[in-house]
């Protein structure tokens, strides 16, 4: 599986990977165990970033949808679709949460 991006949780105990296979995976850093698979994207996922509190992470990818995922439940909490007049496009070269976790920039 090709991994495009990884992000460490704020506590450094886990990391999440974004992959070519349309999934994200949560990993235990200490022993390399896969803890959870996050599926629902319809194309490659290119970027991933943890929220400052570590309870959620955001992704963006080739399907032009930014998603916010709940780490513990594995559910997709929100989908943010493109609103640009250019091909309904929403994609950035990176993702970032604001320090208070209320805004995602791409």
From TrEMBL:
Membrane-crossing residue ranges in chain numbering: none
Task: Quote the SMART domains the UniProt record gives.
Answer: WD40
Q: State whether keyword DNA damage applies.
A: no
Report whether Isomerase shows up as a keyword of the record.
no
Q: Which UniProt keywords apply?
A: Repeat, WD repeat
> Where do the WD repeats lie?
1-37, 38-79
The residues the entry assigns to the signal sequence are: none
Q: Provide the protein name.
A: Anaphase-promoting complex subunit 4 WD40 domain-containing protein
Source organism of this protein record: Aureoumbra lagunensis
Upper classification of the source organism reads: Eukaryota, Sar, Stramenopiles, Ochrophyta, Pelagophyceae
């Amino acid at each position: 599986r090709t991994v495009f991006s990884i992000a460490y949780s704020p506590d450094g105990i886990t990391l999440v990977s974004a992959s070519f296979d349309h999934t994200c995976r949560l990993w235990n850093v200490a022993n390399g165990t896969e803890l959870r698979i996050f599926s629902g994207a319809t194309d490659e996922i290119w970027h991933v970033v943890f929220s400052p509190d570590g309870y959620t992470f955001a992704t963006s990818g080739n399907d032009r949808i930014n998603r916010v995922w709940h780490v513990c439940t594995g559910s997709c909490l929100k989908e943010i679709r493109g609103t640009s007049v250019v091909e309904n496009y929403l994609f950035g070269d990176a993702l970032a949460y604001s320090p208070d976790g209320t805004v995602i920039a791409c």
